[in-house]
Design a protein that fits this description.
Oligomer: single chain
Shape: globular
Structural class: alpha+beta
Largest sheet: 6 strands, mixed
Number of strands: 6
Number of domains: 2
Number of helices: 5
Distance between the termini: 80 Å
Helix content: 40-55%
Length: 263
């Protein structure tokens, strides 16, 4: 009973709140080969998305290397991220909580895109989705990200409320049921990921001995992240240049036709 994740201090730090939930997850995922990476770990899927953002904006002169978004908890199987979860301490503002919510949804969306870009897309696509958690203090929710007609939809799967006293144990039982369903789905996804990962690795090795396909055109970024300053400047410069070019064309047409109206 002394090991129950009871937190009564509303001013507890983000790490304190995280460790209460992490102590439960450590038990749930024990001996499963699913790794729990915590401590602001970089997410590879978000790094890939940011690189695509940069290429789309022709930001080749940006010398800063991109890094993945720092995530409080990443679940990982065979070197592939399969879930992102975020924490904030209890007394943050609503705006901060909403910012975290948006970040977590985009991160899980990037993870889903990465999964569907692998050989997972050949296996039961309608049932492949990503599940994560978002908590502020001792309460939060579990969310799912699913692909529907090419768009990613975020939806609520259930509330997560840590008990503040022994009187809340009945409610905590419902939370444990939800966390068990979370574990069960992650294990099912792990089984899909493992076989798909090894097929992809084999295809990469054998690809050196096969006819090489021409590279595809630049990909449109599936998940958008905040652009770098160079990307914003590049976009503004392109708009200004296009406007100036149009004005020159109109002026030349006016002069050639003898029109006196100024543009």
């Amino acid at each position: 009973m002394s090991s129950l994740p009871l937190v009564s201090n509303p001013d507890a730090s983000e790490m304190t709140w995280y460790r209460k939930m992490a102590s439960i997850l450590d038990i749930f995922f024990r001996n499963t080969d699913i790794l729990l990476h915590d401590g602001e770990t970089s997410c590879q899927a978000t790094k890939d998305s940011r690189n695509i953002n940069s290429r789309l904006c022709e930001d080749a002169d940006n010398k800063n290397s991109f890094v993945g978004r720092k995530i409080d908890l990443l679940l990982n199987s065979v070197s592939v991220d399969i879930s992102s979860s975020e924490w904030k301490k209890a007394n943050v503002s609503v705006a901060t909580g909403e910012q975290q919510q948006a970040k977590n949804c985009r991160t899980n969306s990037a993870i889903l895109h990465q999964l569907l870009d692998s050989h997972v897309k050949n296996i039961n696509l309608p049932t492949t989705f990503v599940v994560g958690m978002d908590l502020i203090g001792g309460c939060g929710y579990m969310l799912g990200i699913k692909s529907v007609d090419g768009a990613h939809i975020a939806y609520h799967l259930g509330d997560l409320v840590l008990p503040s006293s022994l009187a809340c144990l009945q409610d905590f039982k419902d939370i444990l049921d939800l966390l068990y369903a979370f574990k069960k789905y992650q294990l099912m996804l792990k089984a899909i990921i493992e076989s798909a990962y090894h097929r992809k690795q084999a295809a990469g090795t054998l690809g050196h001995y096969r006819e090489v396909d021409l590279p595809d055109d630049i990909k449109i970024p599936e998940t958008l992240f905040s652009p770098q300053q160079q990307q914003v400047a590049h976009t503004k410069k392109s708009i200004i240049s296009a406007g100036a070019y149009v004005n020159l064309v109109i002026q030349a047409m006016s002069e050639s036709t003898g029109l006196s109206k100024k543009v």
